[in-house]
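Tutorial handout. Part one gives the primary structure; part two gives the three-dimensional structure as tokens.
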Amino acid sequence: MTLKERIAKLMGELTAGIPEREYCIQLAFLTMIIGEPFYIYGRSGSGKAIVLDRLVAAFKNANPIKIGRRQQEVPAMLNDYDIVLFLSYDPSNENMKNWVQIGLQDRGRTPLIVSGDVRPEEALTRGDIIDKLALTVSLPDSISPESLCTLLTSQDDVTATNINPELTVSKEEFDKWDEEFRKIAFSQDSLTMIGKLAELCDKNNIYVSIKKWLVLSKLAKAAAFFNERTETNLLDTSFLGTSIWGRSVANNVLTEGYKKIAVEILLKDIPEALAERYDADNLLRRIKRILYTTNNSYDTREYAGEICVSYKINIAGESTPIYVPLRYIETDEDFNPYNELRQVENRIRCNFHNTTSCSVAIDSSIKGVGLRTNALRTNSPSFKSGKFEDYATLPTYILIENDPNVIAQKKAEAEEIRKEINEVMCKESNHLTRLREIYRDLKKNKDELFCNQQLFNEILDQIKDIFDTTANIIGKIKEAHEMLSGKKTQA
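Part two.
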């Protein structure tokens, strides 16, 4: 049996019959193995006592000491014990606070666990130990209905700690493995993750000491060691994306930040896949305009950076100019025109309905007061758009029918679009191939020891979403190519 197989079986026995707490137990075990202290939080009835009993049982012939509220003093030689547990930690109990401080100072490498039902932020901050513990392990308050039914119908005694002695960790192994962890190399991906999380901490005024970063890096190395690798990978840092940080603000920022950074690292060779994506819908609109509109020339002017048709409409006795982009003429698409401030006017909606006449609908809120009177109120966050009402149909003045210049311009645009299609198709196809490879490679590591499965699946889903978006873009580019190839322009 390999070490990885043995630890996998040990994890299976430690977590058997305790639903939805598997990763909590795995992370707690890993923290004990590297000889670092941590806080385990859980409300009354969440399973803390069972979890603690099993964690102790994972160590061969362990000699633990349990210190509770009624303890009179902490033994002078904590190193005489294999595991130190402070139970029912209460930061308002001055004696207990002092005992924990003494334990943290005098324990050496002895694994130390502080457990309680006081929320981590309050317990650790008031106890002045938040920066002295490696991390927080938080047990869920409840379990899902499905897991509850499974638990109720199980014939096993979940309070039992029947761990196969051959799987448990001996004192000799505990000491030997500490040296082995140090030999594990840090991969660039792992370093990048920790570096970017540290940057995120600085930006959000979250304090994480250098000592704690060193401890957390040792956790990643231990995970790599038990997976029988000589170098860490990104998944070995997955615990950094969970609620281990003790403070709710830090948990919120770093758990969300981890997922974003992980995707960036996985897609580091194709960063364009995370940037603003190619607008394939706009490509189709441009082709449809070339193919399905006339070659007429209209009375236009340049406005807000593009060629527009200008109109004037009267609202509440007030003459107001609006500017309609030429690209919408003879199309069937709702759009908002520009107003006299060169801004998109969201209170007016237009559509040409495949003709040269522009239908105008206005927000009912401006019908009686006009655009200018209502401008400040509509910029308020509390403003809610009302119902749009049909208001007018405005003709467009044609200067020249079947204008040779328009024909030539459309031909030139069609040629440019063909080149654009070839370039974009090549780029997006390469992205799709690489995304498929990244997804498959990542999925192979799903069963790595000490990988947070929920976080892993969320990251995997994000990669899949980007893949699906890319595939959708490619599908529309193919549609555009067929549309442009299958029908010549009317020129």
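Part three, for discussion. The radius of gyration is 33 Å. Residues 159 and 193 are 38 Å apart (CA to CA).
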